[in-house]
Specification:
Residues 31-172 form the C-type lectin domain. This protein is α+β, with helices and mostly antiparallel strands. The chain has one domain: Mannose-Binding Protein A, subunit A (Mannose-Binding Protein A, Chain A), CATH 3.10.100. It is 16% helix and 30% strand. Strands 3, 4, 5, 6, 7, 8, 9 and 10 form an eight-stranded mixed β-sheet that branches. The radius of gyration is 15 Å and the shape is globular.
Length: 174
């Protein structure tokens, strides 16, 4: 484990092998050939998390098509205790936000639409089962980014969230 970073991984049988060397910092979705990394420390704002992923030749996780969201959600649920530690609540940023020119504005929950970092819109219809009840809602009028929320009662549901808060984040690499 690198200094200042916490990684969570699948069992050794599920880790990829590159040139005979195990890549222990990634959970791999073999269907999409995408690796995911959950970073809990240090917690960062959404923009800083985006930059940290980019600095590692990764990007904040894009969770569409829904099979990717299913894989990441399953991984988080199976590793909930390790990821959450002693926390009662945890938010992890992923790679979707409202358009930057719309940040910190009073918008209805339905707009402007969230966009993934790859330029695709977040499909609120196909991803409906991943959202927490009543979300997105832009409750604080600055819920500009997408996070995955876990509490003692909620089990990793999507929430529109404040981009300035510092949280864990999920990077992906293909």
């Amino acid at each position: 484990m690198a200094s200042g970073w916490a990684y969570f991984e699948l069992t050794s049988a599920d880790r990829p092998s590159a040139n005979g060397t195990r890549q222990e910092r990634y959970a791999v979705d073999h269907e999409s050939m995408t690796s995911y990394r959950v970073v809990t420390s240090p917690p960062l704002s959404w923009l800083a998390a985006r930059d940290a992923c980019n600095d590692s030749n990764e990007m904040l996780a894009v969770l569409e098509p829904v099979e990717r969201a299913t894989f990441v959600t399953r991984f988080l649920r199976e590793n909930k205790k390790a990821i959450m530690g002693e926390n009662d609540e945890l938010f992890c940023f992923v790679g979707a936000s409202r358009p930057a020119n719309a940040w910190n504005s009073i918008w209805p929950a339905s707009g402007p639409d969230f966009m993934w970092l790859d330029g695709q819109p977040v499909n609120l219809t196909t991803t409906a089962s991943f959202w927490a009840d009543g979300r997105p809602n832009n409750l604080d009028e600055n819920d500009n980014v997408l996070s995955i929320k876990a509490t003692t009662t909620e089990n990793f549901r999507w929430d529109d969230y404040d981009d300035f808060e510092k949280n864990c984040y999920i990077c992906q690499r293909q």
